[in-house]
Amino acid sequence: MSESTFMGVERDRIDWSPRIDFTKCNDCMDCVEFCPHQVFEVDENAKPKLKVKNPNNCVVFCRACSKTCGPDAITFPDKPETTKMIKAIRKAEKEAATDE
Amino acid sequence: MSESICVLPCNGLDKCAGDLSRRVALELAQSEEVELICPVLINQNKSRYEKALAAGTLTVIDGCNTRCASKLAGDLELAIKEKVNVSEVAKALDIKLGVEIRDDQDTQAVVRAVLEKINSSAAEQAESEFIEPESIEYNTFSHGKFIFKVPKANYFFNENDCWVTVSGNMARVGVSDYVQQNLSDILYVDPPEIGDEFEQFDDLGSIESSKAVFEIISPVAGTVVAVNTGLNDAPEQVNESPYEKGWLVEVSLSDFEEDQDLLHDCPAYFEFLQRKVAEIDV
């Protein structure tokens, strides 16, 4: 069984991962070094070099990498909105289960 | 107010908001249970107030957002139980205070509102003090050379491995045994500020080991009432006693029933953690 759920909701239904503003990013790669979940990838030959390769590896509600970012180039989705969405999905699934 | 309180106000000489904090403090000081702390004197001679501070809880009144009184309490390592900010109360009432010191209807209204806020929260706190349980029983499971502990009852967890345990309207927040073992020796605790309001899943500071920084993701919504100052000198308590002595933040809850929807109780977290540990170590 894969651990790709958060509070019973499939991870890929939760939109939570870093967004990089490349007008601010200075290619320091501190975020890559910081994140232990292999969310980022560096491709030396690409432009930009930094890429959010595994958005669903990102720990839901963790924003720690954005704090290591000097130029403040990393943002995340709105937390209360995300919480609301997760609750809505759980509620819908619970209702669907009781309907069966 | 049954318990005695010490009140540390802003010095009150710089501008209107400060003057109001001074006026609030003088009103409070009419009560016998209240000891007024002069910010200038305590800064010069802390021992003068040692007895009073030991006997009662500390309420800090800040005039403006420079928060001199709070910062002074922080510098002197005083434990703050309650905090009010005159400028914020005025803003909520839609009253502009400005610089000039004045005594009129507007400023009197602010003084009354601040006094009400202090009195009502003192009453609330009396009935909702966090009471530590006598003893906690644990379930354990082992994985390789590691043994993981999870309390048997009365704790709730989010899937970010942070716990909350509730006593009345108050609660304590910390990290699970899994987090402390994963981080190994915790060297530094960066707590949130007392008085901070936060939503469920907002961060409540962080803890740091030589291996990594771990963001404390709050299992509940509320207001920071206290932080575990014992961890300044002994952050290893988070390793030694993650569910008890190593608690991180004390909060007053805003809507625990609502928060619980996205939390695991002890048996559910025990199962969740077993699965997580099994998968990570493949």
From TrEMBL, chain A:
What domain of life?
A: Bacteria
Sorted alphabetically, which Pfam families does this protein's record hold?
Answer: Fer4_7
Organism whose genome encodes this protein:
Acetobacterium malicum
Does this UniProt record's set of keywords contain Amino-acid biosynthesis?
no
UniProt keywords, alphabetically: 4Fe-4S, Iron, Iron-sulfur, Metal-binding
The record, for InterPro entries, names: 4Fe4S_Fe-S-bd, 4Fe4S_Fe_S_CS, Fe-S_Ferredoxin
Presence of keyword Iron-sulfur: yes
Q: Where is the 4Fe-4S ferredoxin-type domain?
A: 16-45, 48-79
- Listed name of the protein: Ferredoxin family protein
